[in-house]
Design a protein that fits this description.
The chain is α+β, with helices and mostly antiparallel strands. About 30% of the residues lie in helices and about 35% in strands.
């Protein structure tokens, strides 16, 4: 199975915040952002493994600043780390005021997906070969995140 670079499967998705997406404060519902994050991350994961994927875990979702009705939203997703059948996808959400051009980071999250076969069983995925310094940094951070999650889960009393 060939390895891929993060840029081979990265996704950039754009949306516009409509009134039906907003709460009483005129800003987008957090759940709507989470849905867009899950969709963009799933597309990146599917592009990486060329298979269907299922969401296994969402971690470290940070809502940094609100997004107003009418603003344009860019959701960037890329593979940060790959295990045997799982992929950690980093997602960054930015907001843009279409009238002033002001842009800001609004949300970040890490979503883990598992590749599945036609029977719903996990299957092996291609390796990841980070190219740039930024991709290498994200890879090491995600690798540490995966290790920490495994250690935490094994320490829980069940």
């Amino acid at each position: 199975m060939k390895t891929k670079s993060p840029s081979e499967s990265s996704v950039i998705m754009r949306e516009m915040v409509m009134p039906g997406d907003a709460n009483k404060h005129g800003t987008i519902f957090g759940g709507k952002i989470m849905s867009w994050i899950d969709i963009a991350a799933a597309m990146a994961a599917e592009r990486h493994c060329n298979n269907p994927v299922v969401t296994a875990h969402i971690s470290d979702i940070d809502f940094i600043s609100p997004i107003n009705v009418g603003h344009h939203v860019t959701i960037k997703a890329s593979i940060n780390y790959v295990g045997r059948s799982s992929m950690i996808v980093g997602v960054r959400v930015d907001s843009e005021n279409p009238y002033s051009g002001d842009k800001r980071k609004t949300t970040k999250a890490y979503v883990t997906f598992v590749a599945i076969d036609e029977f719903g069983k996990s299957r092996e995925v291609a390796g990841l070969e980070p190219q740039t310094d930024d991709e290498k940094r994200r890879y090491e951070n995600a690798k540490a995140r995966a290790k920490s999650k495994k250690e935490f889960n094994s320490s829980l009393k069940r």
